[in-house]
Amino acid sequence: MPHILHIDMDAFFAQVEMLRDPKLLGKPVCVGGIPGQDRSVVTAASYEARKYGIHAGMALMQAKRLCPNAIFVRSRGGVYMEISRRVVGILEEICDQVEPSSIDESYLDIGNVLNYWGGAEKIGQRIKERILQELNLTCSVGIAPTRTLAKMATNLQKPDGLTILTTEDIPEKIHPLPVEKVPGIGKSTKKTLNDMGVKTIGQLVNASEEFLFKRLGMHGKHLREIVSGKLDWEVTPEEGRPADKSIGNSRTFKKDTSDPEELKGYLLSLVQMVARRMRATKMAGKVVTITIRYGDFNTVTHQRSSNRQTQDETEISRIAWQLFGEQYITGMPVRLLGVSVSRLTKIDEGQMDIFDRESQLFSAVDELKDRFGEGIIQRSASLGVRVRNPKRMPNFAKPKRNEQKRSTS
Amino acid sequence: MKFKVTQDPFLKGISKVSGVIPSRTPLTFLYNVHAVLEGNKLTLTGSDGDVFLITNVTVEGQEDGSVLVPARPLQELLRELPEAEIEVETTEDQHLLISTEKGRFNIPGEDPSRYPPAPEDKPPQKISFSPEELKSILDQTVFAVSHDELRPALTGLLLQFKTNEMRAVSTDGHRLVKLVKQRQSDETSAADDVEVIVPLKTLNLLQKNLEEVKSVDIFLATNRVVFDMDDMVITSKVVEGKFPSYDAVIPKDVPNKLLVDVGPLIASVKRVSIFANQINRLVVFKVTSDKIGISAEDPDSGRKAQEEIEATFEGDDLEIGYNANYLLEALRHVPDESIIVNLGTSTSAGLIRPNETKEGEELLMLLMPIRLQ
């Protein structure tokens, strides 16, 4: 019985950027930075950009080479985080078992609410509709008996897809796929499997357990159980929600370092990022945690409480630096540093907002803008933007309808 | 490029430009100042990618040219040099050589063609200001501009120009400032019924530079605003998006009227707020016909404070809570010694106005309360 739902926002960051700037619609857009200026990677590529072979994780310059006309924009973490929160909010109104697994993906156990909403397909449709109506974003949904299969179902139809896989569908729809389509099978496992003559998922399912164990150890055995739907993890709503429980950033260095000045610089820049996110989400916290991963992967975390709820960068820096000074084994090369702040509370509890209170007085345009469709009303009409692929962003083609609906509600 | 210049004007120019140069950016070429020499005119440009500041320094030019060098070491050096003539030239490999009577300093630069070109033409809509006027407008409004990136339209100051008046409006959702100034129509030159949202960084930059200038012309385009001040031009992106209809949220006809002196109120709120909750900074005001009781309490630490100040209030007794920081910031920007506050209920906006309004000027500050338990 398919009861695990996986949802993936389509080219999430790129879609959000398109909402903010209609000129990007239908164009190959890469979020992450400006080639030649930033030395980072593509964090999200629009579907138009993916046609050129660009994918997340690719170096900016390489993306530029693949598609010289691509539009590059810098990512704005706080904004995506806030929208991600709103997506999870919508999901939680539909089902109480929601586990956000990353900023743009969540798993839901919809077993308990299947009857209430009238079946898996209805739930999938409802989620897609609400996210489209309320946030103007499209997503892809997969529903299957296990997490892994649900995620694979999502990947079968993207963007804007809804795929339901029952146990009976699996031999026909999943087994012919190459093994690397299984989440968790990377290049090296793929190569080992291929060398063993296992090229498709069907072959993996039918391979002997002993054979897989010999070549891949427990990992091989588990893989087979996972793709056969025999091994799965529960959807755990409490887990994977670091955004609510703590706000943190970590950074793996290009080269391990033991230079105290350099480490201090990294630590303080992490604190800056954390403090910025806290300000953006209007959170204050009490407990500061630092993570040090040494070159040998030995990882230690330490935490200390501030004597007050704070979002003050100086205060967080002070504690983080103090912790680091006490815990760091001088001279040991460090691979990763992390800083997070937990025991969070909302800062302006009770502080009233001018525009919330009077929201009914505002035009639909203002309300849309508040939800992020910055300039959404102006765009198609006054800016003459053509929606090349209307299916991707259906609401752009008909903002008027949205406007009417909002103003009468 | 080769020229002679005295230390002081050169330092002034570099310092102005440094004001716009970001302290941290992944775009490392923005750490540079772009210098172009034509005859005796040395044009210096600094930018953070969104805002450009261009200023001219008169020098004794010897050979035209351009260079892109990091602003910080140049500024630091100029600051330490005595006020005497210095000689500046560039080498073929883009180094900047600075020679004084006794010293030689070498700063490696970059290829000037890497620098983004500043938009050159001036947009058509022109409005002239006296620097004092613009400065007073900014002083009264900029503090309420939002820092919240999730509400981009609020991250700048709205300037609206109508036939006989100009309006400056800022808000962060918790407070709002609206300043209306009467203007002679010929003052607004070519601009009627235009508006622009000027980003916070540009506002701060203007505030820093307005002291020393004699005239300000503002040029407006849909996506750009240019401030032309004597020998300095600031060209800035504007905040895109629609500013909320602020007039709709300003309550009309609020009958309750509180008259209070600003100085004693600030002093009292400062003292009491030491005891306020660290997070919401809640200070409670109990307003009666002849006084205000000001109190705060932090349940976490058990600290409490209470004070009374004199005031005149026409209306029913009222208890209302404000974030002390928001209130203090508003009070510090009122250009008068006493204020009139219109209060509705404990959950509606408070309206603060100076007791005596300047002629041709109408200032209104709106402050949203904190809901009391």
Automatic annotation (TrEMBL), chain A:
| Enzyme Commission code | 2.7.7.7
Q: Which InterPro entries does this entry report, sorted A to Z? A: DNA/RNA_pol_sf, DNA_pol_Y-fam_lit_finger_sf, DNA_pol_Y-fam_little_finger, DNA_polymerase-Y, DNApol_IV, PolY_HhH_motif, Rev_trsase/Diguanyl_cyclase, UmuC
Q: Which GO terms describe its cellular component?
A: cytosol
Could you tell me which NCBIfam families the record lists for this protein? PRK02406.1
Kindly list the biological process annotations in GO that this record carries. Answer: DNA repair; DNA-templated DNA replication; error-prone translesion synthesis; SOS response
Main role? Poorly processive, error-prone DNA polymerase involved in untargeted mutagenesis. Copies undamaged DNA at stalled replication forks, which arise in vivo from mismatched or misaligned primer ends. These misaligned primers can be extended by PolIV. Exhibits no 3'-5' exonuclease (proofreading) activity. May be involved in translesional synthesis, in conjunction with the beta clamp from PolIII.
Q: How does it assemble?
A: Monomer.
Q: Where is the UmuC domain?
A: 4-186
Task: Indicate the transmembrane segments per the record.
Answer: none
| Active site (record annotation) | 105
- Gene that this polypeptide is encoded by: dinB
Cross-referenced PROSITE patterns, in alphabetical order?
UMUC
The cofactor named in the record is: Mg(2+)
**Keywords, ordered alphabetically:** Cytoplasm, DNA damage, DNA repair, DNA replication, DNA-binding, DNA-directed DNA polymerase, Magnesium, Metal-binding, Mutator protein, Nucleotidyltransferase, Transferase
Catalytic activity, per the record?
DNA(n) + a 2'-deoxyribonucleoside 5'-triphosphate = DNA(n+1) + diphosphate
Pfam families with a match to the protein in the record: IMS (PF00817), IMS_C (PF11799), IMS_HHH (PF11798)
Specify where the region named Disordered lies, as residue ranges. 237-257, 388-409
Q: How is the cofactor bound?
A: Binds 2 magnesium ions per subunit.
Record family assignment: Belongs to the DNA polymerase type-Y family.
Any GO MF annotation of the entry: DNA-directed DNA polymerase activity
Query: Which residues carry the site feature described as Substrate discrimination?
Result: 13
| Name of the protein | DNA polymerase IV
The top EC class, named as a word, is transferase
Q: Which CDD domains match?
A: PolY_Pol_IV_kappa (cd03586)
Intracellular or extracellular location(s): Cytoplasm
- Superkingdom assignment: Bacteria
UniProtKB/TrEMBL annotation, chain B:
Localization per record: Cytoplasm
Any one cellular-component term (Gene Ontology):
cytoplasm
Indicate the segments forming the DNA polymerase III beta sliding clamp C-terminal domain, all copies. Answer: 249-365
Q: Does the keyword Cell cycle apply?
A: no
Principal subcellular localization: cytoplasm
What is the recorded function of this protein according to its Swiss-Prot or TrEMBL entry? Confers DNA tethering and processivity to DNA polymerases and other proteins. Acts as a clamp, forming a ring around DNA (a reaction catalyzed by the clamp-loading complex) which diffuses in an ATP-independent manner freely and bidirectionally along dsDNA. Initially characterized for its ability to contact the catalytic subunit of DNA polymerase III (Pol III), a complex, multichain enzyme responsible for most of the replicative synthesis in bacteria; Pol III exhibits 3'-5' exonuclease proofreading activity.
Checking NCBIfam families in the record gives: dnan
Could you identify this protein by its name?
Beta sliding clamp
